[in-house]
UniProtKB/TrEMBL annotation:
Protein name: Tyr recombinase domain-containing protein
Pfam families to which the protein is assigned, alphabetical: Phage_integrase (PF00589)
InterPro entries noted in UniProt: DNA_brk_join_enz, Integrase-like_cat_sf, Integrase_catalytic, Tyrosine_recombinase_XerCD
PROSITE patterns linked to this entry: TYR_RECOMBINASE
Residues of the Tyr recombinase domain: 43-218
Domain of life: Bacteria
Keyword Secreted: no
Keywords of the record: DNA integration, DNA recombination
Keyword Cell cycle: no
Organism of origin: Mesorhizobium escarrei
Gene3D superfamilies: Intergrase catalytic core
Length: 236
C-alpha cells in the first residue's frame, strides 16, 4: 500500500480491516504491532471572508429563495450539509430564537442560534414555497433535499460569485466558526454551537482567524517600549 502511494484515509481503512481479521478472527493480537495507522497531515480549513459569503449567498441559484435560505442556514448557524437537509419546520423556534438540530454527528441533538436576519429570510422563503414537514423538501416532497443537491447549489453560487478559492459547502461552516472567533466569541461557545466533542477540534479555527492574529499585540512591542525608555534615559 505504501509503494502504491495510497492516501492516509484509504490506508487506515484497510489497516482497520486487517487488524480485525488477525486480532479477532484469527486470534493473533500480536500481529497488530506490524499494522500501524498512518497519521494524516492536518491542513488548515479554507475560509471565506464575510464579503465573499455575502456575494455567494446573493448568487444562490433559483427559482425562488430555497437554496439561498438553505445555504444561509449553513453559514448562519454553522450546520453541516446533512443537518441542513434534515431540518423540519418544527425545528425552528422563533419564540426562543433557536434551531433544534436533531441527531447531528455522533447522533447528538443540539441547539444553535436563529438570528433575526436569518429568520426574516426563512419567513420570506416559507411564504413563497409553503413547505410542509421538511423545511427544504426534495423530489418527491416526502423526502428532504439531498446533500448532493445542496452541494450543487453551492458550487453554482460560488462560480456565479467569481470565488476562486477551493471552497466546498463545508467551507460555510468553517467560515461561521472563524468569523465568530474573530468577533471574540469564546471558543467553548463555538464548540457547543458546532457540536464538537473535543475542544481541540474547535481550536484549529484559531489558526485561520486572521483578524484575531493581526489584532494580537506582539510581546516585541513591550520590549520596544522598554528599549525606547532606556535610550531616553541615556540621552538625559
Amino acid at each position: 500500500m505504501t509503494n502504491a502511494g495510497l492516501t492516509a484515509p484509504t490506508f487506515n481503512a484497510r489497516i482497520v480491516a486487517l487488524r480485525f481479521f488477525f486480532g479477532t478472527t484469527c486470534g493473533r493480537e500480536d500481529m497488530k504491532r506490524h499494522m500501524q495507522f498512518r497519521r494524516q497531515p492536518r491542513k488548515l480549513p479554507v475560509v471565506l471572508s464575510v464579503e465573499e459569503v455575502s456575494d455567494l449567498l446573493m448568487a444562490a441559484p433559483g427559482p425562488g429563495l430555497k437554496y439561498q435560505a438553505a445555504l444561509s442556514i449553513s453559514y448562519g448557524a454553522g450546520l453541516r450539509a446533512s443537518e441542513v437537509c434534515n431540518l423540519k419546520i418544527s425545528d425552528l423556534d422563533s419564540d426562543r430564537m433557536l434551531i433544534h438540530v436533531e441527531l447531528g454527528k455522533g447522533q447528538k441533538d443540539r441547539k444553535v442560534m436563529l438570528s433575526p436576519g436569518l429568520l426574516e429570510l426563512l419567513r420570506a422563503y416559507w411564504r413563497e414555497a409553503r413547505p410542509q414537514g421538511w423545511l427544504f423538501p426534495g423530489k418527491p416532497k416526502i423526502n428532504p433535499i439531498s446533500p448532493r443537491q445542496l452541494n450543487r447549489a453551492f458550487t453554482s453560487a460560488k462560480n456565479m460569485a467569481g470565488i476562486g478559492k477551493p471552497a466546498t459547502l463545508h467551507t460555510l461552516r468553517h467560515s461561521f466558526a472563524t468569523h465568530l472567533l474573530e468577533a471574540n466569541t469564546d471558543v467553548r461557545v463555538i464548540q457547543v454551537l458546532l457540536g464538537h466533542a473535543r475542544l481541540n477540534t474547535t481550536a484549529i479555527y484559531a489558526h485561520v482567524a486572521t483578524k484575531t492574529i493581526r489584532g494580537t499585540v506582539s510581546p516585541f512591542e513591550t520590549l520596544k517600549k522598554l528599549q525606547d525608555q532606556t535610550l531616553r534615559r541615556g540621552l538625559e
